[in-house]
């Protein structure tokens, strides 16, 4: 009887196995283009899939019977179909554009389209996800045109930054959903305050050059226009964990409700990233969350985003002295155990988008950002006079110097509103936008002494400096694209921007910096696009940008006696974009002419601090080439390269002279020198290989030419050229119990190149040893990046 029962069980199992079938198909839009990442669900079975890079799906192990197939994709109407299993043929499903108002209009006013005569690159969520194992956005954008990224800690976690066409982060405008992100005073973006933000990003548009009018800081080299996650049609859950070299860990959980009653959607993310860093003690402890909820009507969308980041990062700001690069590349001069930067920043965005009839759309947003934190420093044998304190008298001894620990605080609020109104004519020939914003920044800067080697007449929360800044930034713009002839589009963009900036109080060098400055800027832009064939686009434009000095330009230079001047940029762009069967390509020329560009010259202010000064004439000119080609069904190659010339017509270098009887500065005139941190060649090349389904192997190469640490074009003050190669392996599978299971291995710098993409320098004269006269001393400091290292991740999508 046991044998018969076993035989019967095996027969039943075999019958069950043979009764399981697969359902295959492809999903396209109404123009025939495949849709990647569409959700395909067989209701009632618990089985589903998402479309791959070719738009295909495959649902496995389905029992026989009749079921309802549901297909959904953002921006398209959900599709349902009754299917019988086993199915006799592959399905071809076409989705129709949704009648619901999409979220893309949230960023439409500040973005370029294929008919806008400017140079831009679009980075989609799938591109970001391939590299995202916890690194900051600058590292994830490293392989886009003309970008050079770097990390203070050397491993892509913690303080990171990027330059585009040689322009640093303070000259790159960044918006999130059209709302300004740049710090109102420094103009910088501190990505460390937004850990794992890339996990909540849907897409990024990078505009190089002046680009189109936007909100916030002036676009003086490039702009990053970021759109956060858009709604998902289906409920989902995601768990993402990664680990790697230098004890790097990342844990992320993300959930979403999908569209509830076709009206409501909610999303949430929670992340933690920790790393010891490549540089000694350059550790990071980063935490963040992202919350979003919205109402999605047929003609109106109301959405609330709240995202926050908290970071505690051990300082690796000082860099590695040149003399130690070969013997101790991970050197960090700081040894005090709490030499940290400790900061939290929370962003609140309330966004409305509406459609009014067939011709009009409107977008408006209110925002509020609160940030508070400090950096702590141990100061050995510091002067008490630096803190407005008299010497400490102990018995008959007067102590004017001692060890102290100080904290420098920033407590700030940034709030305001942005808006845009879009009109499209019935014949689609005119597309016009009027928009703008009003924003206010309130910043409180103060310093405290929290410990002293000897007791002094000071309390722990006494402020040795305290100053407040208020900055109002208003702008309004109008831009339009008009099809004057068949395929010829004329573009115009006019922006007026006003800045009111005031200071009140004592700076950290104990000077009274009270004062007020005002700026009024007019920024016109004109151009044309010729697009007779949708696969071939020619464009050219002329744009003007004006930029106010940053906070330190005012605080280091007395506002009343010697206020720094605003900067002016005139930008010409001309290019061509094309695509064909299996390939895309683009080429553009640019010329960026600066007037009164602010640069470090070595000049001192009245208390010995180095200040930036305006240089009359400087420029950047270059050509950028990019393309991609599908060699076969398994191989794809793509890349970009930029050749540029970046010059200052005349540069005055101020050198401290300690060899003279009384301290003085010597002025050296330099002509036609390279602008600092502006390599003449920047390139990237990516080779993708798919040996089997769902496995992708990528070789990522980056080349950056040599660049100078200052504007003197001195060969002794230079960053050497470097070429790095990374290897990425990505394997995705769709087991029965989850929607998607994905494994990623990223091996950075596989050839263990020693390189430094960032640094700084200063020089001075000292008395010559053993002889009369003097000698020039140059001190270079570098930020080395890690040799061969890895990150590995597992992503589970429910």
UniProtKB/TrEMBL annotation:
Domain annotation TonB-dependent receptor plug: ranges: 115-221
Subcellular location(s) of the protein: Cell outer membrane
Signal peptide positions on this chain: 1-19
Domain TonB-dependent receptor-like beta-barrel: 328-750
Pfam name, any one: TonB_dep_Rec_b-barrel
Top-level taxon: Bacteria
Gene Ontology MF terms in the entry: siderophore uptake transmembrane transporter activity
A single cellular component GO annotation: cell outer membrane
Alphabetic keyword roster: Cell outer membrane, Ion transport, Iron, Iron transport, Membrane, Receptor, Signal, TonB box, Transmembrane, Transmembrane beta strand, Transport
InterPro entries from the UniProt entry: Beta-barrel_TonB, Plug_dom, TonB-dep_rcpt-like
Protein topology in the membrane: Multi-pass membrane protein
Protein family according to the UniProt entry: Belongs to the TonB-dependent receptor family.
Protein known as: TonB-dependent receptor
Species of origin: Arthrospiribacter ruber
Lineage: Bacteria, Pseudomonadati, Bacteroidota, Cytophagia, Cytophagales
